[in-house]
Amino acid sequence: MGTFSYIGPLTEVLSMEHLSLKGPLADSAMPVLKDMGILMDGEQIHTVGKHKDVLARAKEVNAEVTLLNQPVVAIPGLIDCHTHICFSGSRARDYALRNAGTSYLEIARAGGGIWDTVTQTRAATEEKLVEGVIYRATHHLQQGVTTIEVKSGYGLSILQELKMLQAIARANASIPADLISTCLAAHMFPKDFDGSKKDYLALMAKELLPKIKKENLSHRVDAFIEEGAFSRSDITPYLKTAVSLGFDITIHADQFNVGGSEVAVQFKARSADHLEASTSKEIDLLAKSDVIAVALPGASLGLGCNFTPTRALLDAGASVAIASDHNPGSAPMGQLLTQAAILGASEKLSTAEVFAGITYRAAAALGLTDRGTLAKGMLADLAVFKTNDHREILYQQGSLQPSLVVKKGAIVYSTM
Prior knowledge:
single chain; alpha/beta; Urease, subunit C, domain 1; TIM Barrel; 2 domains; eight-stranded mixed beta sheet; eight-stranded parallel beta sheet; 16 strands
């Protein structure tokens, strides 16, 4: 038994429990629980039930009681399953060039883009990177995001990729939010590497991945399959090695050109992320697989391009998560709730589909089964909003922020 704590009364609770992992969701399928309370046993949820009954139980076990004397709505702590918040520098120049008509790929060919951030991140100390991750992750936490995936990929050498992953690990130990690290050494081909793309990937597979495994710095490997990054033939041996070492796979897929989603399905990846260029062929392929499709509306907003065909993916039967893609180049906003609300309006997503995409379906994209719903035995991660109607959260498109955030049973942020 841990230390009990109680929070209530909660005007509404969206438990997100007993909803399907794949396909469309009607709002009528999402239970909205009224006048509730949540009893927590240490880091886990013990009971979700009527306020009066659960409060009585809380007093019996001498729980620490937090009474909320105003209308509030509680939802599971949000999960951002795709970010790049470990970096140094800014790409405001790239943003201005894109808005003036220069394409993303043209900027990259001219020395901007990802390589610009690589140069600045390599020059930064590990300490500086730790500070940056803590700063950005803290902002995410205050926005109700209690689990944040964080990629490397701005190092692109053995030592620099290890520096990034070590910085993520150190930041994770210093803040309440859970940071889930991912190795993205296959982000782009480094301009200063003496050899071919296949030579670079072979070196990373032989030298970097075993070190990451040995030092327990990550259990996830990502790859960018795209013009200007890596082709299917380039990446296949690298991913085979990653799988043989026990890494989970995720893929940057179909952002500008198709092909990446096929690789994701071939390797039974946890997720295929981006998918803005996906056609009916890729949509059907993903829907028939167990790969989670991850929409990244922040990248669409930052690049001024189409959104991921989220409505079509859901209607085809796919599981769709929504993530911020927070990065210094294409998605500098880093506001998950705002982006999810905008995507919902553009793609005509139900409230249930949007909340599923940033809670339990996002957890599935990370292979996590202990969070994403408010139910007995799950992590006590909550975002609490001052409103009496859960629909206000998306309606206000990010201007309604959480007033209380609970992580593993502890209040980690409050303006109440």
